[in-house]
Amino acid sequence: MLIEAQIYRVRRIKIKHNKIPKSFKNFKIIFIADIHFGRFFRLKRLINIVNKINRLNANIIIIGGDYLDISVKSKRDALKYLDSEIEALRNLKSKFGIFTVLGNHDYFKRKDYLLKQINSSSFKLLKNAREKINFGKDSIDLVGVDDLLEGKPDVNVLKKDSNNFTIAISHNPDFFSDYKNVINYDLGLSGHTHRGQVTFFGLWAPYTSSKYGQRYLKGRVHEESRDILLTSGIGNGMLPIRFFAVPEILEIILE
What we know:
single chain; alpha/beta; six-stranded mixed sheet
């Protein structure tokens, strides 16, 4: 359990959809979330993860929120760990940009400083916002919503049924179930659940941090004719342990 919490894997997923333009064939998206940087997360490990992501040659990189661990209590520690973390993450490289949403932990005592760090970097914060990614004459849409638990997600940003292939990003996957009848998107991306973090051989988790129980335990959920991809995250919540829920980088290939 201790060893698994300190390693990571790259999970590769191909997404086929008739709305994906031909020019976006083999377009590569890297998605990570739940870094939970803190006293149980060595800076060297984060630097290794950044270097690995850069070797994957992403077209875009998406960070799904929860930058700091809950064990970081004081404001002084929050500033110290955020400085180290953002400095490492600033070395991420992608062809069309780095985008991020906020998670519930990002609202605990250090939100303003985190936003200052994001604004001073090359990251684009998608807080109830839509971003068009242009490639040649074609484009796809990225839509990021605010955190479901601590923020104020605005469903209006996803009510529009776009002709473009639309990727919706919510830190918490419960958002997609809570508003499934009023939002429009083609692919959802979420973190938050850590795939259970400690599971019975990946099949069942005592705690999932989702009100929908085990629904978002798996890495790919088909819901309302759409796919939602869930990452198990990079870091760990509460305790630095994992069991059959390996930390991961998601490498998403559009086809």
